[in-house]
């Protein structure tokens, strides 16, 4: 059993993926070809954001967003230590200080009630992370940001396709704050066959700045009006994402249904594990199916021996990683510490079978008895 099954997806989409790839090979516009614009239009429409700017990765999306906002040395950006390194890494690489605020114990998402205590005159932005496919309490976070004149950048690398119902009504991840950043890394909910990512915003000036930064700060060919990067997404990768969109709505439905099935099986098993909290105003599209368990290593070994792969997202909070110790500021983060010791992700992908879930939960039950 694979941890994430990308092969079945490929087989299901093979004719369309190959047609799309061949089309790029025929027209030959490998950089900024027509598929780039087509994908940007499709994704903007999907999220409801006015603009989508595709970029070379989710990491680059975070970097370009902060460059467009003019964040740099002397500034602080508030985020969570319980995330993939790229989130805090990009804050650090532009010379700003990552400020770590703890997560809620059950959802593993940044705790909005703890954000205000971390704000200083240097704070410029809040970067909530939509971990495991569930968005944060965006109404609360946007309200804090508005009160203090900060920008909210959603790190939506794991949540493209997730829904949140807030004050504005029903909305899609990536369009719940001023900026949303996602990743098309193969294992993410919407993946390509390499690296890719996208930034979403409805602010025209920011969108223009991001487009320029993506191509070395050019406002016109060889006219460099700002410092930028080489951050374009390949035409071929855009073509692959376009093909994958044909099946994406079905895949989101599958993720929701499989998450519900996992929950049902795990609850019925009556074993000493804790399920991830999911708030009623949003869904979780389960980029990872993550549970919390004690004696994690023993449990993992038993699953491994039965041919069931697992993963840990993430074993050490970023405020405890050597690279961040001296360049970040951290509030008390006891929930992140606890989560890092107990989280464990089980196999998850839209093509996972009900029978797989039954087997996984049965094996887990055996491991915990
Ligand atoms: C994957 C991921 C990123 C980085 O995306 P890449 O496309 O791999 O650069 C950033 N933040 C989070 C939370 C992620 O899961």
From TrEMBL:
The keyword Transmembrane does not apply. It comes from the Bacteria. SUPFAM superfamilies: PLP-dependent transferases (SSF53383). Keywords: Aminotransferase, Pyridoxal phosphate, Transferase. GO terms for molecular function: transaminase activity. CDD domains: AHBA_syn. This is DegT/DnrJ/EryC1/StrS family aminotransferase. It comes from Herminiimonas glaciei.
């Amino acid at each position: 059993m694979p941890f994430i099954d990308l092969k079945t997806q490929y087989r299901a989409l093979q004719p369309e993926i190959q047609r799309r790839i061949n089309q790029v090979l025929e027209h030959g516009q490998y950089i900024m070809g027509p598929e780039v614009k087509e994908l940007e239009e499709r994704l903007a429409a999907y999220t409801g954001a006015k603009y989508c700017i595709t970029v070379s990765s989710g990491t680059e999306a975070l970097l370009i967003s902060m460059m467009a906002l003019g964040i740099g040395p002397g500034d602080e950006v508030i985020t969570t230590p319980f995330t993939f390194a790229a989130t805090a890494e990009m804050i650090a690489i532009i010379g700003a200080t990552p400020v770590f605020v703890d997560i809620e114990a059950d959802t593993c998402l940044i705790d909005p009630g703890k954000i205000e205590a971390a704000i200083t005159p240097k704070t410029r932005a809040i970067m909530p992370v939509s971990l495991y496919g569930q968005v944060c309490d965006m109404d609360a976070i946007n309200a804090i940001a508005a009160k203090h004149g900060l920008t909210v950048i959603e790190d939506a690398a794991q949540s493209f396709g997730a829904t949140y119902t807030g004050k504005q009504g029903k909305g899609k991840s990536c369009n719940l704050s001023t900026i949303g950043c996602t990743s098309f890394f193969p294992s993410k909910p919407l993946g390509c066959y390499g690296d890719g990512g996208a930034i979403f915003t409805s602010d025209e000036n920011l969108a223009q700045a991001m487009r320029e930064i993506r191509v070395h700060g050019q406002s016109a060919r060889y006219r460099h009006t700002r410092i930028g990067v080489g951050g374009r997404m390949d035409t071929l990768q855009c073509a692959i994402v376009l093909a994958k969109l044909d099946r994406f709505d079905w895949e989101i439905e599958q993720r929701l249904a499989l998450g519900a099935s996992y929950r049902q099986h795990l609850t019925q098993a009556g074993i000493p594990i804790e399920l991830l909290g999911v708030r009623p105003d949003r869904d979780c599209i389960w980029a990872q199916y993550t549970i919390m368990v004690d004696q994690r290593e023993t449990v993992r070994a038993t699953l491994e021996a039965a041919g069931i792969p697992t993963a840990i997202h993430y074993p050490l909070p970023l405020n405890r990683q050597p690279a961040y110790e001296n360049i970040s500021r951290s509030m008390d983060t006891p929930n992140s510490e606890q989560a890092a010791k107990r989280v464990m992700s089980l196999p998850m992908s839209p093509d996972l079978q009900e029978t797989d879930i039954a087997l996984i939960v049965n094996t887990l039950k055996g491991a915990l008895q």
